[in-house]
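[step 3/7] inverse_fold.run input=structure_tokens len=312
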């Protein structure tokens, strides 16, 4: 089964909404297992359409059949560690019990106390921790330091604009430290393959573009020397790529490789998809600049040859 990036985005948004609704109700290990199992159910539901390449409507229908993210979160919380899940496990462990299952004949405690507690949990979670924009690091810091999260985000954004990409690497390092220590609570699972593949692919593409441009210029010089048997003319104003190629390649790697790693992390609000697209656009822009540099070099040679031919 092949899914488009748009369809993967639909699934990613649904899974993130479920993960947000599960916040504080399961520990990290339980949450990862529950979300992994739910991801498998999503794929099975899409496979049920029997299409090698499902359409967008098939993916949306599959997600709709699974129900609202909040409802799925309630189910996962019950199954993977919620209070009612423990009660159901205890009931199934005593076959001699003659009363019907708890979900058929709920006790007064379950029909009054439990729903009231569940209804109170969600707003309390939203009040104690602000919504995450990316990975929740600044929201956690604002909660710990008792600072307005918007002010902290503005301050870090200003610093990041000056120190990028170092600020982005520090942000990711802090996230991993908080995640390993369990201070972020329930977090979505990491996509290790993409975290290795995307930066490696970005570096490979930039390298191919860079060396294609460098050897393209060398090829032009070799052709000029082989066919015309003459020394290269002075085209310094047109040969800017020859002097700037190494600097351009360094900054392209420095800026885009960390950004591609960041796009592979479990960012909230579909920022991973947006940053991935932005990185791809920057790689394409780098290729255009390199192509323009080669074209500028060739143009300089042609103009120099024309000036010499016409005696200008």
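[step 3/7] decode complete -> sequence:
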């Amino acid at each position: 089964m092949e899914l488009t990036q748009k369809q993967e985005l639909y699934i990613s948004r649904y899974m993130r909404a479920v993960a947000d609704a599960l916040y504080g109700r399961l520990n990290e290990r339980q949450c990862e297992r529950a979300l992994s199992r739910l991801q498998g159910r999503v794929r099975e539901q899409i496979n049920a359409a029997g299409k090698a390449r499902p359409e967008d409507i098939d993916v949306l229908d599959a997600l709709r059949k699974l129900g609202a993210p909040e409802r799925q979160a309630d189910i996962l919380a019950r199954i993977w560690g919620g209070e009612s899940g423990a009660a159901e496990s205890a009931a199934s462990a005593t076959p001699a019990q003659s009363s019907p299952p708890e979900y058929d004949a709920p006790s007064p405690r379950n029909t009054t106390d439990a729903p009231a507690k569940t209804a109170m949990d969600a707003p309390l979670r939203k009040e104690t921790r602000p919504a995450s924009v990316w990975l929740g690091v600044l929201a956690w810091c604002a909660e710990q330091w008792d600072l307005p999260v918007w002010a902290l985000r503005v301050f870090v954004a200003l610093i990041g604009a000056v120190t990028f990409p170092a600020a982005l690497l520090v942000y990711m390092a802090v996230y991993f430290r908080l995640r390993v220590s369990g201070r972020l609570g329930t977090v979505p699972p990491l996509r290790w393959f993409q975290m290795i593949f995307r930066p490696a692919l970005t570096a490979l593409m930039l390298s191919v573009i860079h060396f294609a441009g460098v050897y393209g210029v060398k090829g032009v010089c070799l052709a000029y020397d082989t066919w015309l048997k003459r020394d290269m003319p002075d085209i310094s104003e047109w040969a800017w790529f020859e002097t700037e190629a190494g600097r351009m390649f360094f900054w392209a790697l420095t800026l885009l490789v960390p950004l591609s790693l960041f796009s592979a992390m479990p960012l909230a609000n579909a920022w991973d998809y947006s940053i991935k697209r932005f990185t791809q656009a920057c790689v394409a822009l780098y290729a255009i600049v390199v192509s323009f540099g080669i074209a500028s070099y060739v143009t300089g040679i042609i103009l120099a040859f024309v000036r010499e031919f016409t005696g200008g």
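[step 4/7] annotate
Residues 192-310 form one domain.
The chain is about 75% helix and 0% strand.
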